[in-house]
Write a structure and sequence with these properties.
This protein is an alpha/beta fold and about 250 residues long. The chain is about 45% helix and about 20% strand. Strand 7 (about 180-190), helix 8 (about 195-205) and strand 8 (about 210-215) form a beta-alpha-beta unit. Helix 4 (about 75-85) crosses helix 5. One of its GO terms (molecular function) is ATP binding.
């Protein structure tokens, strides 16, 4: 059974960069990995160095539009499953699915119900499913993914950022989602704020499992639009994410 890890956080905190470095770390082992970009902004492929433009959102729109045109006796779940495998990107060390968002109007509940069953079946082919999620946790409230083992909230070093992590924890509890553990990673940490971050997290009852330092290699690659997946092993962010992966049992 796949271990499911979802990474969330506000825009600008480094959520997607952290997800890509966790995927990078996972490819060094012998685990079969499925990466899912569930953020409508769809930045994960770029940080991984993948130029895919195919999304589940496109498939959902097709199924939504064609629902009434398909023969009544046809297996619609099989059609959706076949199209999903068509957009599954096979990358070195992992597979990638991009959720995207449908452009059409109307309710997609019918397609979401089909997708939920297919995704739950798909993940049985993998050891680890890692999701770059949006902060709103929309995919979890709709139960598109089954039980999440670890929800990782990426935040900056501010008290406001840690408060956001606290609110996400409260939202998870309100939605009664099936999340086993909630962890926090502080990103872009400096020597000046490291101790304050640790004490604030403890004060708020947040389980802080890592503090990723400001990494000039990431800054340079972001400015150049280059992927983070092939960062060298001496990157301080890579080294910290390796420790985080160990704490997550990866």
């Amino acid at each position: 059974m796949a271990k499911i890890i979802a990474v969330t956080g506000k825009g600008g905190t480094g959520k997607t960069a952290t997800t890509s470095l966790l995927i990078r770390q996972l490819t060094k082992g012998d685990k079969v990995v499925l990466a899912v970009d569930a953020d409508p902004d769809t930045n994960l492929p770029e940080t991984l160095g993948c130029d895919t433009t195919k999304t589940i959102g496109d498939i959902k729109e097709y199924m939504h539009e064609e629902r009434d045109n398909l023969p009544p006796d046809i297996n619609k779940e099989s059609i959706l499953e076949g199209k999903l495998y068509e957009i599954l990107e096979e990358m070195p060390g992992y597979d990638l699915l991009v959720m995207g968002r449908p452009e059409g109007s109307g309710c997609y509940c019918y397609v979401n119900n089909l997708l939920r069953g297919i995704m739950n079946k798909l993940v049985t082919n993998y050891d680890v499913l890692i999701i770059d999620a949006e902060a709103g946790l929309e995919h979890f409230s709709r139960k598109i993914f089954r039980n999440v083992d670890d929800l990782v909230v990426v935040t900056d070093g501010s008290r406001r950022g840690l408060r956001t992590a606290e609110r996400i924890r409260e939202l998870v509890n309100e939605l009664e989602t099936d999340v086993s553990n909630i962890y926090v990673i502080a990103n872009k940490v400096t020597d000046a704020n490291r101790e304050r971050i640790s004490s604030t997290a403890e004060e708020l009852g947040l389980e802080l499992i890592g503090m990723i330092p400001v990494d000039e290699m990431i800054v340079e690659r972001d400015l150049a639009g280059e992927p983070l997946f092939d960062l060298p092993d001496d990157s301080v962010a890579v080294q910290e994410v390796e420790k985080i992966a160990q704490k997550l049992g990866l």
